[in-house]
Amino acid sequence: MAALGIALPQLPLSASEEPFRVPPTLMFHSKDRWKLPHILEWLREHDYESIGYADLLRALRGERALPEKPIILTIDDIAPSYVQPYFLAMAEEVEKVGYRGVFAVVADQPPQRAERGWAILRELAARGWELDTHTSYHSYLPALKLPDLRDEIIQSAEWIAQATGYAPISLIAPYGGVYRREREFDLRIFEVAAQAGLAFVVGIVGGRFIPPDAQSPYYVGRVGIGRDHLQTGRWIQNFHQGA
Ligand SMILES: [Zn+2]
């Protein structure tokens, strides 16, 4: 197209298109397992339907619509070296209400090691859980030099894909660490995530909307678990007002 040498008219695309609303996203750790049943009950009562980042990506590409009230449930810090049984109990709890979620995997072992742990992760994926990378060693990414950043992101994504047969599509940043300084992204993280074939970088702060002119990997945020299901429910309902 550009070979014709014709300047394309400047269309105010971003002015006419709405930013994409990131579905409310909850960040669970195993310590939150006691609150999970009540939160799931609250979500069911309020007609939420669970989706994963793969669904979000298809929606962004216009390939499918999201449910009217989507929710992304993420559970952090599962690792092939030792799969803490709490995680499996949480997965079963989520499945009981017909939901699925996303496990943020710390891929701390190569596929040829920790065979039992990888087999458990493979089985979770076969049950409909999305496996995304939470890096290899759970480092605070902005503090790393580039080679270490590549190990953390690219190696972990490769290990998950090789060991389970499911390629991750998100980098879930440890500690939500994606900023070089306040509100200024560490762009190296996004570049390396793109090299790893990832479509999302998941942090905590912000990331409530995806601007129409945004490029992959898209930044999306999450909210933690409140003191109980009622507070968590308020945070879900206020997700798009959050910072
Ligand atoms: Zn973590």
* Structural classification: alpha/beta
Q: How big is the Rg?
A: 18 Å
Strand content: 15-25%
CATH homology-level superfamily: Glycoside hydrolase/deacetylase
CATH class: Alpha Beta
Low-confidence stretches: 1-16
The N- to C-terminal Cα distance equals: 40 Å
What CATH calls the topology is: TIM Barrel
Task: Identify every distinct bound molecule in the structure, by name, code or SMILES.
Answer: zinc ion
Q: How many domains?
A: 1
Overall geometric form: globular
**How is the biggest beta sheet arranged?**
5 strands, parallel
Number of helices: 8
Account of the protein in words:
The protein is an alpha/beta fold. The chain has a single domain (20-241), classed as TIM Barrel (Alpha-Beta Barrel). Helices cover 34% and strands 17% of the residues. The chain has helices at 13-16, 36-45, 53-60, 85-96, 115-126, 146-164, 187-195, 229-237, and strands at 20-21, 25-28, 49-51, 70-78, 102-105, 130-133, 170-172, 179-181, 184-185, 200-202, 209-210, 218-220. The strands form four sheets. Strands 2, 3, 4, 5 and 6 form a five-stranded parallel sheet that branches. Strand 8 and strand 9 form a beta hairpin. Helix 2 (36-45) packs across helix 8 and helix 6 runs parallel beside helix 7 (187-195). The structure holds zinc ion (ZN). Zinc ion binds at residues 76-77, 134, 138, 174. Zinc ion binds next to strand 4.
